[in-house]
Amino acid sequence: MSSETGVLSVVATPIGNLRDITLRALDVLAAVEWVAAEDTRHSRRLLDHYGLRARTVSLHEHNEAARIPRLLRLLQAGQAVALVSDAGTPLLSDPGGRLVAAAHEAGFAVVPIPGPSSLTAALSVAGLASAERFVFEGFLPAQRTARRRRLAALASEQRAVVLFEAPHRLLDTLTDLCELCGEQRQIVVARELTKVHETVLRGALQTVLESVAGDANQRRGEVVLVVAGVPAATAPETVAVEATDVLRALLQELPLKQAVRLAARLTGQRRNTLYQQALALAERE
Prior knowledge:
- The protein has 3 domains: 2-116, 3-Layer(aba) Sandwich (Cobalt-precorrin-4 Transmethylase, domain 1); 119-227, Tetrapyrrole methylase, C-terminal domain (Methyltransferase, Cobalt-precorrin-4 Transmethylase, Domain 2), CATH 3.30.950; 236-284.
- Helices cover 44% and strands 17% of the residues.
- The chain has helices at residues 23-31, 40-49, 64-76, 97-105, 118-126, 144-154, 170-181, 205-213, 236-251, 256-267, 271-284, and strands at 8-11, 34-37, 55-58, 81-84, 110-113, 134-139, 160-165, 186-191, 199-204, 223-227.
- A 5-stranded parallel beta sheet has the order 3-2-4-1-5, sandwiched between helices. Strands 6-7-10-8-9 form a 5-stranded mixed beta sheet.
- The longest helix is centred in the last third of the chain and has 16 residues, at 236-251.
- The radius of gyration is 22 Å and the shape is elongated.
């Protein structure tokens, strides 16, 4: 592979259907000497399926720092290395970022080999107007308070928000989204994309929450959420209601002054006004 000597290729691999791999990805994986893989057993199945004989070395969140010197030595010696994750495009909520940075800093070429991604796959079937502009948040914090704090910060985002979520936390996350974003906010829940049991649920948050709660199969497998953004031209009275909702949610998790400070930052409203609202909410509730 003379033209690729010393090159680190970042290769996207299928997220489910093995036929989604690109011809270029197959060419690169057939030519490299080494494949740095999140799980070598998982990637070996893909390589074996296509009769590819590259050697594999594990690279995951627990050993990435220790693996980098070895992989840089391989590149320095003129061997070609491909970086893959278990599925999809590496570095999107997957390890490999430190290796890519180290390769750049050491002067090696880093080449993208684009292909499958659950992020773009979910966006492509979302059908949300706000999805033309989006933010990718990856996985939310597992701890409830931290998760709600992060969702409260995203509640007023005008762009679509793309999230990954573990299936056993899906109901809790949808419930939090209903409370913080409003029951009528549009959402798409894309599950097991490109796999046999692929499903795409689309609708108002409360409706989708009820569908997921009523069907245990919707709480299995890999999940991508696309939450519609807030319309840019939101009526002033709607903004006021949303600020109150954000404040109410924050007060459930934070002391009053801290909740008011964060609500002011999220909504753009004056802190004194929100403080008075918070006192009123505390008296009622």
